[in-house]
Request: fold
Amino acid sequence: MHLHDIAFYAAAFFLAGVIAVTSGLSFPLAAMSALLLAVFLCYAAYAVRSPRARWLGVCALALVLGAGYAAWHGARHEESAAFAANAPILFSGVVHRDPVRADTQELDVMLEPPYRGMVRVSASRYPEFFYGDTLRVRGVVRPLEGDRAGRLRKDGIVGTVRYAEIERVGTGKRSPFLAGLFALKRGVIANFERALGPEQAAFLAGITLGERGSFDASFQNAMAQSGTTHLVALSGYNISVIAVAVSAMAAWCVSRRWAFALTLVVIAGFVCMTGAEASVVRAALMGGVLLLAKHIGRVYSVRNAIAYAALLMAVQNPLVLRFDVGFELSFLALLGIVYLAPALKQLFRLGNESGILSWRENIATTIAAELAVTPLLLIYFGRASMVGVIANVLLLGIIPFTMALGFMLGLLGFFSHSLALLLGAALHALLAYELWVIQFFGSFGKGIQGSLGVTGAAVYYAALVAFVWYGKGAVRKADGLRAREKTI
Amino acid sequence: MKQAIAAISALVIADAFVWILVCAPRAASHPELYFLDVGQGDAEFVHAPGNIKMLIDGGPDNRALKELALLVSPMDRYIDIVALSHPQTDHMNGLIDVVKRYRIGVFIWNGERGAAKSFSDLKAVLEEAHVPMVTVREGDAIRYGESRVQVLGPSAARLNAREINEDALVLRFEGGGLTALFTGDVGEKTEKELRANNLRSRVLKVGHHGSKHSSSELFLKAVAPAVAVIEVGKNSYGHPTAQVLDRLAAADARVFRTDRNGTVKIEEKDGRLVISTRR
Reply:
């Protein structure tokens, strides 16, 4: 077995161990299952004399490592001392992340002694609080409950506070570098808002910087019903726009090595600035691997890049695999695009030409991504869009262009309001069209509704894997036929 | 080749769109009054001939901003006058978002800071944007062409009493045959003092969201409005009260409410008031 295959399977088994323990399986049970699997694979390897199966058996031991790591991580992060139930307490803390602002503000406050941990404080829209502010808060800390508990715990939250009295007593208590990045982000969004109407500025902030706080409930609903919510989840589109722009500009003034380093630094800065949500971290890690492969002249393996990104994210926070819906949707969609789209192109005979605004490519990738994420959407949200394919085909061709112009507007606004207004007028046309598509297809009703259990999802994905397997064979056959025709 | 044609066509269409936006700013030929649906709060927009725009109060959140986007061309990012009647959150908070996004000619107010914490945010964004903050008093006036805005209150004596609602700016707009009185949250005390002025107005912004402590019978007699607009949303105060609704009915005023009618637009055509609503 090649080294890159060993690395991939070891990472995959490690991740499986993490998922097992974070889903509730005890470590001893997970470890025993892993050992049994390893023994079975090694026996199978001996029986059929397959070195590949033997290596798989060795890799299966990584499952024990993953389970052990997840168990250790969970034990290490204990909750803080219990808060007095239903009684207001006075505590101090520092705003640990860039606040999410909508009609209210969500502040993740790292507690100062005698308390430990982090609480999420809901505050009114004004006065505004910022990353690094020291706050004195008086309110009731409620324990985590219900469906949200896992997701909040994944973010390091131990309790929530609403209707609190909040007073700022200090500023600047965190990283000045991050504070600067967040200020830059606020400045860029302010430039959008000064050049565009509120809905358009909010949408542009969403697709360029992942900001979703300004969307009202009806627009969020329209996005969900039109299958376009992913447009405002930062992804490879954003990373590639930044990477291409920075590389192109850097190539004029510095060497190839420095251009590569600068691109990586800017991507890392963008990830930090936008709050490091799962989809953009995944895209940035994979983008970094791609750039490195190009830089050192090695072959880029999408499969290994996906596994590497997931591994790093799971090591940083094992809970992200199980409780971060964005992480799960992002990875599944990517797997669909990488493995399912070629099979679909073969099935629908779309050929290799991309077409106007890449419509052929967009149909295949959209259907592939939708097929890959639909079970998860049904499990978590109870619905999935039926019109998403059409809506996305109408949008995906121009979204990268809108993003690029959006970044230009965001930066131009710092230098000239008049020029930013002109660029805003051009963007106005694009954004008006995009918002119209979302609202129009969002009015088509709730789409597929219902729930899908874990068993149903497993059967569904097994069928998809079988289809991909079949599709790979068909693609290989078609390539072989084309090669023979060329020779003839 | 096909992609090049598609790209060029898209650029030509976008270019035409931009020029249409640049060359056709929306200008009013006669005054238009808008009472914006911002929930439990006040926000009024006056669009006068010469493309003069005045926003009186901003409501409690960003709904005023969204309403403004529907009334003003996307290329028009200038508001001539922003007026704050008094520094309470249901009148003030929405102005913070407006000042951040639009260039403001002048900010007029009564000079009272109030207790609301968000006032510091409003002051900060005004200072950052270098907007002149002008304190106005009874007797001041703003004039542009045939349009005039009179400041009827507060008086210096009233301000000494330091009652935040009673100290609110009271403005009277006059232009193009349309007269309108904007009363903020003033109550009967101030209304009694105001009766010394000429209050007659065809349109009345009803005081304090229809509270029974405002809009006294004598005051309504002095104003004699043809149309009364109550800016109100969901609330636990019982606004608008049955007493005020009865008084307005007795004054023969046609009543509109933003909680039921949405945003109310009033303009004057051929001597008649033309009213439209949007929910």
Summary: The longest strand of chain B covers residues 103-109. Residues 250 and 278 of chain B are 27 Å apart (CA to CA). The first helix of chain B runs from residue 2 to 23. Chain B has a mean pLDDT of 91.
